[in-house]
Design goal:
The complex is a heterodimer of chains A (about 160) and B (about 100). Chain A has about 160 residues and is an all-alpha fold. Chain A is about 75% helix and about 0% strand. Chain A is built from four helices and no strands. Chain B has about 100 residues and is α+β, with helices and mostly antiparallel strands. Classes of the chains: A mainly alpha (about 160), B alpha+beta (about 100).
């Protein structure tokens, strides 16, 4: 290749967008975990905001991942890793989406009060805990695609001539 | 009250998980296989083929893939779900490169 490819390639938008939901959703889980113990508005509202923004982010990441999939799959030596990454990303996204529904139900339905509220808090933390486990494993699979199979990565020529 | 709320939430969560699990794909040796197209992803020029021995092959067309019907070359848009096809694949690592896809009907 004579020229360095454009940086803003379709497959690059996925790594640009995945790190926000990873950070937001994991911190949201910590907030909700603390809220389970201390039940203070800071942790509950903060957890809800982080969860909501994280859920939007996770679906953006799923979308950009789908765009990248059509491009990088043809060059992978083991696309089954990508398939697992994709399938589990959907599981993760739905788990956090379900958690958001539970959280909104808990905060805004007005139907639940007193001790029963604790059941929803526990369900919320459970969904987010399982989701966080999936999120980390999906991230690990994504990292193996990049660092073991060079998914979406431009590989310079041996003589680096295109950089002259 | 709480069970009235939690039960539907649990059902919805399980439903989502079933939807989300997606399809798994198989890796087979290089060779020729017959099967049925279970999914066509036109934007990615990709098809899924269920072989007669219940394997699911995920095939991304390359520039070298030959697609034919009645011995004539046809465009990717000729592919539809449910069609019977014969595919010749080359296994590269764990990737299956389609060398040729023949529409049988």
């Amino acid at each position: 290749m004579d020229q360095i490819p454009d940086f803003w390639r379709t497959e690059v938008f996925h790594p640009l967008s995945v790190h926000f939901p990873i950070a937001l959703l994991l911190i949201a889980f910590v907030f909700q975990l603390i809220a389970l113990r201390y039940k203070r508005e800071l942790w509950e509202v903060g957890g809800t905001v982080l969860l909501a923004v994280g859920v939007i982010g996770v679906w953006v990441a799923v979308y950009t991942g789908d765009l990248a999939d059509g491009i990088v799959s043809r060059n992978l030596c083991d696309p089954t890793v990508l398939k697992e990454h994709e399938n589990l990303a959907y599981v993760t996204a739905w788990l956090f989406t379900s958690a958001l529904v539970v959280d909104l139900l808990k905060n805004y339905s007005g139907l639940i009060e007193g001790a029963k509220m604790n059941y929803l808090r526990i369900l919320l933390v459970l969904l987010m805990g399982v989701g966080s486990g999936y999120l980390m494993y999906v991230g690990h699979l994504g990292a193996t695609l990049v660092y073991q199979q060079a998914a979406g990565v431009y590989q310079p020529s041996a003589d680096c001539n295109e950089f002259n | 009250m709480i069970s009235k709320i939690l039960k539907p939430v649990a059902v919805v969560c399980i439903f989502f998980l079933f939807i989300a699990c997606g399809e798994s794909t198989d890796v087979v040796d290089s060779g020729t296989y017959q099967g049925t197209i279970s999914e066509v992803e036109a934007a990615k020029t990709e098809i899924y083929v269920e072989t007669t021995d219940n394997k699911t092959l995920e095939l991304y067309f390359t520039e070298e893939t030959k697609l034919t019907q009645n011995d004539s070359t046809v465009a990717f848009s000729a592919l539809q779900e449910g069609q019977k096809v014969e595919v010749q694949v080359e296994k590269v690592g764990k990737r299956l490169d389609p060398i040729s896809v023949k529409i049988l009907e």
